[in-house]
Write a structure and sequence with these properties.
about 450 residues; mainly alpha
Length: about 450
C-alpha cells in the first residue's frame, strides 16, 4: 500500500514537472513568435532546433504558440498579419505544426480585427482560395464557419460589398452540390421585412404633374414586398385579390412613366442593396428607370414561382385557369413596359427571360434532390485495352450450359447431347436439283415479266 502511494505521488510530481516544462516552452515560443525576429520558416526551424523536448512536444507547443501570438501580431499592419497567417500555413506544410492550426489562426485573426481590417486581410483568403479547395472537409468547414461569422457581423446596407466577396469565396471553395448551401425545402427568409410608413406625413408634398402618385399608391407599392417575402400567403383568396389589384395598379402607373429615366446610369449609381422606403422619395423613385425595373422584375420572379414546377410549394397554392390567364397576360404587359423603358430596354428584357429560363433548370435540379453535376470520367483507350474480361469456364459434365445470354442458352440446351444432335438423320439430306433451281427457271419464262436485273441467277 505504501509503495502504491509513493508511486502515485511520483506520477503527480512528474506530471507537474512536465506541465511546468511544457508551459515554459510554450511561453518561449509565444515570446519569440510575437517578436519581429521570427518572420520566415527558417527562423521557426531554428527556434525549434534550439529548444529542448521531443519533436511531438515541440510541435504541440508551436500549435499553441501560433494561436497565442495572434494577439500581439494583430497590433501590427495588415501586411504583417497576412505574413503571419502565411507563416502558419508554411509551418503546417513543412510538418512543424498540425494540419488544422493555420485555420484556427485564421479564425482568431478575424475575431480580433475590426470589419474594416477584416476586409483588407480577407484578400489573403481570396488569393489562397484555389489551395483551400483541395483541403479536407474538416478544414473547409472551418473556413465556412469563419465566413458565416463574418457575414453575421456585417451590415447588409453598409458592408454589402464585403458580404458579396465572402459569398464568392464560399462558392469557389465548396461545390455547388454542398448541402449546407442549398435551400432544399424552398424556405423563405421571413425575417426580411420591409418597413414603410403607414400614416401620411402632412409635411410631405409630392411634386408631380399627376394626382396618381399619392400616399395611397405609396402604400400600395411597398405592400407588394410582403408578397415577395412570403409568396405562400397568396393561397388565401383575399390575399390573392389584393395582390392582383396591387400589381395591376403598379403596372398602370409605371406604364405612364415608361419613357422616363433615359439617361445612361453608371454601374456605381445603379448599385443598391435595398431601396429606401421614405415617402419623400417616392416621386424621384418613380422617375428612376432602375427603380421601376427593380419592382417589375420582382413581380416576374413571383410569377415564375407561382407557375413553375416547385416540389415543396404548398398544395393549396394551385392556380386556377383564370389566375393562370391573368398571370400570362400581366407577364406580357410587364415585358412590354420593360422593353420600352430606357436605356437598352429590349436587351434588358432578353437578359431577364434568359435568367428565368435557366431558373427552370435549377428548379428541376432541386426537385430531383440536387444530384451531382459532375460527369463520370470516360475511360481512355489505354484503360479500355488494359481491361480483361473474365471468362467463366464451363463445366462440360453439366447437363446445361450458361453462355451468358438467354437466347444462346436456349439454342444450346435444346438437345442435352449436342454431338448426337449433329449426327441426327434429319440433318443428312441433299436437296433436289429441280426444286433448288425452280424459282430461277420460272423467272426465265417470257410470261413471268421479271426484268433481267432482278434475276436470281
Amino acid at each position: 500500500y505504501k509503495k502504491k502511494q509513493w508511486y502515485q505521488r511520483r506520477v503527480r510530481d512528474l506530471s507537474k514537472m512536465a506541465a511546468a516544462g511544457f508551459r515554459a516552452l510554450c511561453d518561449e515560443y509565444v515570446r519569440k513568435l510575437g517578436s519581429p525576429t521570427i518572420k520566415t520558416l527558417a527562423d521557426v526551424n531554428s527556434l525549434m532546433t534550439g529548444s529542448k523536448g521531443t519533436d511531438q512536444e515541440k510541435k504541440t507547443c508551436l500549435d499553441v504558440a501560433l494561436r497565442k501570438a495572434v494577439f500581439k501580431k494583430v497590433e501590427g499592419s495588415d501586411e504583417e498579419v497576412k505574413s503571419y497567417i502565411d507563416l502558419s500555413f508554411q509551418c503546417t506544410k513543412s510538418g512543424c505544426a498540425s494540419a488544422t492550426t493555420p485555420f484556427f489562426v485564421l479564425a482568431d485573426v478575424f475575431d480580433c480585427l475590426t470589419l474594416e481590417r477584416c476586409a483588407n486581410v480577407f484578400c489573403y483568403v481570396e488569393e489562397k482560395s484555389g489551395q483551400f479547395v483541395k483541403e479536407p472537409t474538416g478544414n473547409r468547414n472551418m473556413i465556412l464557419r469563419l465566413c458565416n461569422d463574418l457575414i453575421r457581423r456585417c451590415s447588409k446596407s453598409i458592408n454589402n460589398l464585403f458580404c458579396g466577396r465572402i459569398q464568392i469565396i464560399l462558392a469557389k471553395i465548396f461545390p455547388i452540390t454542398e448541402r449546407s448551401g442549398l435551400n432544399l425545402q424552398s424556405q423563405f427568409n421571413l425575417e426580411n421585412v420591409t418597413e414603410y410608413s403607414s400614416t401620411h406625413d402632412e409635411d410631405v408634398t409630392m411634386e408631380t404633374d399627376t394626382k396618381e402618385i399619392s400616399f395611397m399608391f405609396y402604400k400600395t407599392l411597398w405592400s407588394m414586398q410582403d408578397y415577395f417575402r412570403n409568396p405562400n400567403q397568396i393561397s388565401n383568396d383575399a390575399n390573392w385579390k389584393k395582390m392582383e389589384d396591387t400589381v395591376n395598379e403598379i403596372c398602370r402607373i409605371f406604364e405612364n412613366y415608361k419613357h422616363e429615366g433615359s439617361e445612361q446610369v453608371s454601374k456605381d449609381e445603379a448599385y443598391f442593396a435595398k431601396f429606401l422606403t421614405s415617402e419623400r422619395l417616392l416621386t424621384l423613385q418613380i422617375m428612376d428607370s432602375n427603380f421601376r425595373r427593380h419592382i417589375l422584375v420582382q413581380i416576374l420572379t413571383l410569377f415564375h414561382y407561382l407557375t413553375g414546377d416547385v416540389k415543396f410549394r404548398p398544395n393549396k397554392l394551385i392556380l386556377s385557369e383564370p389566375r393562370k390567364f391573368w398571370i400570362r397576360d400581366t407577364t406580357n404587359n410587364i415585358y412590354s413596359i420593360l422593353s420600352e423603358t430606357p436605356p437598352e430596354g429590349p436587351q434588358f428584357v432578353n437578359h431577364i427571360k434568359s435568367v428565368l429560363k435557366y431558373e427552370e433548370k435549377w428548379s428541376k435540379w432541386k426537385n430531383e434532390g440536387c444530384p451531382s453535376l459532375s460527369k463520370p470520367a470516360e475511360k481512355t483507350k489505354q484503360q479500355q485495352k488494359g481491361v480483361r474480361r473474365t471468362v467463366r469456364a464451363m463445366d462440360l459434365n453439366s447437363e446445361k450450359f450458361d453462355l451468358g445470354n438467354p437466347t444462346l442458352n436456349e439454342l444450346w440446351n435444346i438437345c442435352p447431347d449436342n454431338l448426337a444432335a449433329c449426327q441426327d438423320s434429319n440433318r443428312n439430306f441433299t436437296p433436289d436439283t429441280y426444286k433448288f433451281f425452280e424459282e430461277c427457271i420460272e423467272q426465265l419464262e417470257p410470261d413471268s415479266g421479271v426484268e433481267k436485273q432482278y434475276y436470281l441467277t
